[in-house]
Amino acid sequence: MVACAVLAGVLHFLFLSAIVWMFIEAVLLFISVKNLTKIRSKQKEVLSWKYMTVIGYIISLTAVGVSTRLFPDGYVSKRTLVFKTLIQIVILGCPWILGFFTQDSKVLEILFLFLNSQQGTFIFLVHCVFNHEVSHLGVALPLQG
Known about the structure:
This protein has 6 helices and no strands. It is an all-alpha fold and 145 residues long.
């Protein structure tokens, strides 16, 4: 039971870290595109890698710490946590295994690209559509309009 809660906390931290790092990369890309009109982009205008590392991991760690503090039993679940963990491993890991075999086959390359581009959709399906708590909550809320 404790191992499941720790694994859930680690997964929460890793997913949040990935989201924060994607945001950091988007900001850096924006700054890079903005500086295309100049001949040379100065590295000092952008945050150093030390600050980006702190931002990328501390924000996620803070969010996990706050949710652990507010909901101490929030990460404890028996079967559903194990199932969701296994599904996430399949969703996030298996398409990358295909990546090693794409050099010889165009079909595997297309399958690899499709599965990787749909990871967000698969995660949405697992955590929202197939989640009984979320689906019951969605039905209980009246539509306003």
